[in-house]
Amino acid sequence: xxxxxxNVNSIRQRTDHLLRYLDEVAPDILCLQELKCxxxxxxxxxxxxxxxxxxxxxxxxxxxxxxxxxxxxETKCGLPGDPGDEHARFIEGVMDSDIGRLRVVSLYxxxxxxxxxxKYPYKLAWxxxxxxxxxxxxxxxxxxxxxxxxxxIPTPGDCFDPAVWAGDALFLPQTRTKFQTLLNLGFTNALRxxxxxxxxxxxxxxxxxxxxxxxxxxxDHLLLSPQAADHLQEVVIDKExxxxxxxxxxxxxxxxxx
DNA sequence: ATGACTTGCGCGGCAAGA
Length: 258
Fold this sequence. Notes:
Deoxyribonuclease I, Chain A
């Protein structure tokens, strides 16, 4: 079975892209980020017509995450740890699959730029909450997948030029250390379990011909609990989606579990 | 080069993204 994650940068602008992807790749589960719409405006009918259930945590204008699944989803919205946080950046679902019951999270970690504003402490605090919640989830010893746009460049090999990103919230030492702390709880970064190749990217900026020059970064990740990692067969970055008309600036990342 | 796009909001240019 396949699980994919995709920051679509507005679900309403990308509905046709999404439906093509469901037709052509047909992942069993698809985690979406940056819906940029309320639950009411989510294109639920078109997605259900393709044979998917949809769990949606939307927000007007910004953020917004969802989980699509061929099997029914039991859903919880929101990352624990701060009742005052109203950003729609986290949704957690449980569903059946051909390898058994799964718990899947679709997350959109805060960008954090510029780092000298309140945005960066918010990012770090969000990461602390994610670490705390992930630690709780690991105790269940389930097949668990934390998928999404982490807004973290884990290593220098995950961007085209580390010097360009040196002072950026996506690459600052504190950011990378917290991401490593999350991994150290016992997660497997799916991509890094199958390859040590550098220069594999999931995002290319719209500006300055970043796609044409292959000036990308790898910030969309799937983290697997030990029970899920035992089933990992393959990781694919669906890079060709970046060459479509009016694409998202992110491409899907997809794992196969057998 | 304080740039370059794209989107939402809402109808005038910002804010946000990464």
